[in-house]
Structure formats: structure tokens, C-alpha cells
Design goal:
11 helices, Rossmann fold, Ester_Hydrolysis_Enzymes, hydrolase, alpha/beta, globular
Length: 232
């Protein structure tokens, strides 16, 4: 089955301009445990750390990916830190991993949408480009209907506000459709957080997505699960 993994609704013009001038690029990766790197064998195996390595190799230029992940947070808690970080420092691109804990912990759908709206507005006001990173898939989701409504909300709002969105949910469903064993290899021992292999694959595909934001003329702006499988 072909699933859409990434959609770029607009180009990351600031990043592209900085790269053209060979100026360093600053990326803020913010979210909860998947950004912090819970489940990885070391901080160096978190997806932001591996993403920094990927982008430095791709761009042959200075790039810093700040890991602002904090395990267990809901979107509202992350939003407070996001807005504080944007006031304290300048970033060219923000990757906001959001929604898993909101769906699990009983945050209302109305409140979650309001959180997304406010975060998108805050990033835009800062002048940075934004990529939303939606919820993960894991085999023991208890209320699948509710959970998928939260996943859908991220995609819908990204489309309405013309924000780039990378769907971890679609990516991990693709791993599972290949085989349950493939998905398990991407997860740590708790069956929820990613393993080193999972974070490595996520970093690879997020790097590819960022490339399509920076150079839309050379990319379709959309990446499907078939393309992801070929890339691996």
C-alpha cells in the first residue's frame, strides 16, 4: 500500500537562502520522548543528533540541530517551551513533534487543535519555517478511533495552514505492513519508543523531507511510503 509520508505545502525559503550564501543553519527539534531519544542506546542515536549528521553531510555546510525533546509532555507543555525558545534564540527551521501524549492522556480534540493553531502562529511570527511531525504508530493503541482522529487533525491543520507535515504514523504503518517483525526492529524493548534503528530511519527520511522543503524544484513536495522503502 502506498501511503503519503510527507507533504510540503510551502518552501523553506530562509533555509535555502542561507545555504546559498553558505551561512550556518539552525534547526530546533522540539517535542516529547521521541525527540529526546528515549529508547535509544545513547543521545547520539536520537533522531535530532542523527539528523544533524545527515544534513551536514548533505549540505556540506554548518548546521546545528538543537534537541529540545522532553519525555512525557503534552502539546500544551511543549508549546510553552517552544514559545520561550523562539523568544530566546533565532532558528531557521522548527520541527515540532506533537500529539502522541495528547491522544493517550485524554486531552480534548478542541484543546489539541487550539494548541496546534497557537504553535503554528508562534513559529510563523518568529520567521522560521515549520515542519510538523505527527504521532507515532505502535501496536498497543487502545482507542484507535480517537488516536487516528488526532493524527488526522495534524494533517488537516497542516493543509489548512500550509505547513509541512511528516507523518510518522504513515511511516510506521508501512513498517508494520512489511511485517510485524520489521516494526518490532524499529522499536525499543518497551514496544513503544523507537530503537536506534528506528531513529536512524526516521532521521534519514526527515532529512530527505527537509531537502524537498529547501529545493522544491528538485522534489515533488510529497514522499510516499514506496519512496521511503526504496530510500532504505
Amino acid at each position: 500500500m502506498t501511503r503519503q509520508i510527507f507533504t510540503a505545502h510551502e518552501a523553506a525559503t530562509t533555509v535555502g537562502a542561507k545555504l546559498a550564501r553558505r551561512e550556518p543553519v539552525r534547526v530546533l527539534a522540539i517535542g516529547s520522548s521521541s525527540t529526546e531519544g528515549i529508547g535509544a542506546s545513547s543521545p547520539e542515536h536520537s533522531y535530532p543528533a542523527q539528523l544533524e549528521d545527515e544534513l551536514r553531510e548533505d549540505w556540506k555546510s554548518g548546521v546545528t540541530v538543537v534537541n529540545a525533546g522532553k519525555g512525557g509532555e503534552t502539546g500544551a507543555q511543549t508549546l510553552e517551551r517552544l514559545e520561550a525558545a523562539l523568544k530566546a534564540q533565532s532558528f531557521d527551521l522548527v520541527i515540532w513533534q506533537v500529539g502522541t501524549n495528547d491522544a493517550i492522556k485524554g486531552v480534548s480534540e478542541e484543546d489539541f487543535r487550539a494548541i496546534l493553531e497557537r504553535g503554528i502562529a508562534s513559529v510563523r511570527a518568529s520567521g522560521a519555517s515549520l515542519m510538523l511531525l505527527d504521532q507515532q504508530y505502535f501496536p498497543t493503541i487502545r482507542n484507535l478511533g480517537r488516536y487516528e482522529r488526532f493524527v488526522g487533525m495534524v494533517g488537516t491543520l497542516a493543509r489548512e495552514r500550509k505547513v509541512a507535515v511528516f507523518s510518522r504514523y504513515a511511516l510506521m504503518l508501512d513498517w508494520n505492513s512489511q511485517s510485524p517483525e520489521e516494526l518490532r526492529s524499529m522499536l525499543s524493548g518497551d514496544g513503544f519508543h523507537m530503537s536506534d534503528k528506528g531513529y536512524d530511519c526516521l532521521a534519514d527520511q526527515v532529512a530527505e523531507a527537509i531537502q524537498s522543503l529547501v529545493s522544491p524544484a528538485r522534489h515533488s513536495g510529497q514522499v510516499t511510503s514506496n519512496q521511503v522503502a526504496k530510500a532504505r
